[in-house]
Amino acid sequence: MATTGATAPDPAADGQDGSPxxxxxxETFAVELHLDAPPSAVFEAFADPSVRRRxxxxxxxxxxxxxxxxxxxxxxxxxxxPVPGAAPERLAYTSRYLDITxxxxxxxxxxxxxxxxxxxxxxxxxxxxxxxxxxxxRWTEQAAFLAASxxxxxxxxxxxxxxRLRLNGLTVALRS
Length: 176
Fold this sequence. Notes:
- The protein is 21% helix and 43% strand.
- It has helices at 39-47, 49-55, 155-175; strands spanning 25-35, 61-67, 74-81, 89-101, 105-114, 117-131, 134-145.
- Strands 1-7-6-5-4-3-2 form a 7-stranded antiparallel β-sheet.
């Protein structure tokens, strides 16, 4: 067999062998909490845009939102986040609902973009179970961090903390 001096491409170099592409980090976390509302009310807080807007918000100013709560539907949101001593960051969020089981489960995928660069994409499963006069909520998120940040070891704690803050907002929205 004659050779031409060319080498065979390495399938691992671009993730074709099933391994993650270089630089992409995968992380999974779960947050659980008890809510003093029935699963139907918690579910409605995800579905009803007026209730959702009380607890799901992007930080910053000039925020826009468009939400279609149905399988195949999703949400788009954007805002401008002021950064002291630097240019403001343009934030964008796009999601797509993959599975919705009323008062029981919501599965969706989303991507977060900062200054036109996709920073991470996630698959989120929200499970709602009746629990002693309320709801046990379990939020499981599987994130793929797509772009390097200034401090990569802060990415997962930042995402987990932002999720916890958002769910704290859900708790407050359910009381009003």
